[in-house]
UniProtKB/TrEMBL annotation, chain A:
Main location: membrane
Highest taxon above the source species: Bacteria
Domain ABC transporter intervals: 9-250, 306-539
Protein name as it appears in the record: ABC transporter ATP-binding protein
Species of the source: Oliverpabstia intestinalis
Membrane-topology descriptor: Peripheral membrane protein
GO terms for MF: ATP binding; ATP hydrolysis activity; ATPase-coupled transmembrane transporter activity
Gene3D superfamilies attached to this UniProt entry: P-loop containing nucleotide triphosphate hydrolases
From TrEMBL, chain B:
Annotated PANTHER family: ABC TRANSPORTER PERMEASE (PTHR33514:SF1), PROTEIN ABCI12, CHLOROPLASTIC (PTHR33514)
Top-level division of the source organism's lineage: Bacteria
Subcellular location: Membrane
Main location: membrane
Transmembrane segments: 25-55, 67-86, 115-136, 248-272
Keywords: Membrane, Transmembrane, Transmembrane helix
GO CC aspect terms: plasma membrane
Provenance organism: Oliverpabstia intestinalis
InterPro entries the record matches: ABC/ECF_trnsptr_transmembrane (IPR003339)
Record's keyword annotation contains RNA-binding: no
Membrane topology annotation: Multi-pass membrane protein
The protein, known as: Energy-coupling factor transporter transmembrane protein EcfT
Amino acid sequence: MTNKQSPVISFKNYSFQYRAQKRPTLTNINLDIYPGERVLIAGPSGCGKSTLAGCINGLNPCSNPGEATGELLIDGVDATKSSIFELSAHVGTVLQDPDGQFIGLTVGEDIAFSLENSCMPQDEMHQITRKVAELVKINNHLDYAPHELSGGQKQRVSLAGVMVDQVKILLFDEPLANLDPATGKQTIELIDEIQKETDTTVVIIEHRLEDVLWRDVDRIILVSEGRILADLHPDVLLATDLLAENGIREPLYLTAMRYAGITLTPEKKPSHADRVALSEEDVKRLKQWFQSRMSGKKESERDPLLEVKNLSFGYTKGQRTLQDVSLTIRKGEMVSIVGKNGAGKSTFSKLVCGFEDPDQGEIHFAGKDLLTENIRHRAKHIGYVMQNPNQMISKTMIFDEVALSLRNTGLDEAKIRERVEETLKICGLYPFRNWPISALSFGQKKRVTIASVLVQNPELIILDEPTAGQDFHHYTEIMEFLRKLNEEGVTVVMITHDMHLMLEYTPRALVFADGRLIADDSAAAVLCNRELVERAALKETSLFTLANRAGITPPEAFVECFIEEDREVRSHGR
Amino acid sequence: MAANTVLNYLPRESVVHRLTGTTKLAFFLLFTFASMITYNTWVLLGLLAMSISAFKLSKIRFKEVRFMMIFMLVFLLLNNLFIFLFDPDQGTTLYGTRHVLCHLFWRYDLTAEQLFYMVNISIKYFVALPVAILFISATNPSEFAASLNSIGISYKVGYSVAIALRYIPDIQRDYHSISQAQQARGVELGKKEHFFARLKNSVNILLPLILTSLNRIDTISNAMELRGFGKHKKRTWYTKRSFARNDFIVLGLGVVLLGASLTVTILFGRFYNPFV
């Protein structure tokens, strides 16, 4: 850190209020970020961290009208009087969705987009594009179309696209959302390398703390309710209780150490699982804790609900999206399906729901052949909840939305009302029953979509990424709700990229890679298996690292112990 | 996902693809104009031969643009039907003779003149359509924007058209998944359902489709703005290519065709009359 230089970003008594809001979203922000620093801005959803990013790149107030008071200097420019275009010469912003921000039709064109807008002559433009593409190592793909790229490659293109302007500040707005765990890890590595090579200032907005900390950051700025709550070195911040108090999940290995009774101090360097100092005393405590928790629990065998045999399917001839998948899901289970994008996870669920017809194989549900039934009949047994609630909601009122499927069966209105109200009660939406859906938060909308599926009383529900983009608080809310449903007898299958979800809520995980089912095991065992983790683009849990370092075997038992204790602690409070 | 999109860029290695977008746009305009001003069957047949060979040269297969073709055929049939319904004697008026083939009903006689007139109109469709499809399917959407820009249309307009074209496959994919989720909730949208039930129920897809599309637009417009889109009155183009020999040849050909069509029209009138 070079404090002698003047800050490249400087907020002084800065406040921001959107025109449509009654109260300011940011209040009295004082923050200096120096050249070459790497700063992580963390906070729960709605805390104002995205607004903060918008103020830095000029989207606020240029695109989202609002009023700013106080001072904000970006690389010497007075941001409150500047334009989005002027600021874009200083700040390069990478937005969260690498698909949505792909403007050009090919990699080269997308990288050059900003140069085109600056009227740069074509020769020079091609030259710079090539140079920057080399820097982010995408130079062999300049002619590729977006759909030919992997998520990680798209992320590289987005980064190159803002680097052509030789910006001093790189701003990442939730770069890890929508990425599979392995890609997320590579993204953090890429940001780290680029920062080192170009000595830019990096600001990352993200609530997935543990994933960002895979590489060093200089400071973590904790934002809550529009104010800066802490501005500390990661080692210092992680030794406090501030994260947990403010709805940010601390890295799992640290929680495990706390459970074992180890006091965390900044001197222990807690920001990396493989570097945190473990004294002999600490190792002893961990082992003791592990032994005290070890319990032999057995799952009783339940009746099979969904049986799939040798299922194969391809969208086009000669190309198999799914190959020879056989599995059984039993009544009352909670199962996660994991694997990288395009591994066949969604295709599998589409085949089960009847959205597509398999080329080969059998699907049985509670002993009955499913393949002879159409989508609508299957929907009475199997509910499907899409990732994006906006894609499911077709009515403006909550009640109508939930009642939709019943009205289509021609049930009489009194019966419908009874069933809908009952479902709304289960989903905690009863008080809102006469509200318009547009007044709900994302998490509540998600619940509405789950309710609209549950109202048909399905025995099995399949959810695609139930918690994508949710902070810890909303994540817990949705997942606890699903668990409650599960306890009431609904079998739950979730497609997910979230390793925490998989560990904490699903005892069993199905791992897909390249259209095949490559593992069917306990979630803890999957995440403690290096080879599997690599093949399916998952991410090892830091608990595994910790267990190895403390010499605890088998590591998956340690992971399971942790999950169990964590569940107790979280449901009863500490 | 299935690749049967309605209208999109179909990359190939072909002479047509190698022409610059500006050339294709200019040729498209010249050619359409040439076919619009005349009803001369011989000229139209000549243009039709051109149009079909251009299509052949592009290496785009008929199957890939089937939807557009069918769409056009339906339109063509409707057009012919209405011409006949509103004025069954238009042909007679134009050609000055009246050869009744058979009487249909009321004031409707089927005349050779009317048939010939409608055949000519149909040929016009077949002349213009392959070239129009080529312009869209064989032009890289970003070059498409550059080509519109090069004839004086604001790049912002050109770019919004290009982006819209580029997002068609995404929106179709959204449509597909939304429709599936709706079917799972008992909304009759499947292929086996009654046509009118499907039509009525497709309203259920509209709201979610609009919402998700608005979201897409919001993201992309933010991303574009953050990278300086609209900063200047002009912009340069990464994909724009300079004119090659073939471009000049094709442009020349376009001008010659228009000239020929004009000359024939001025010298011999708009109609070729086989009835006298």
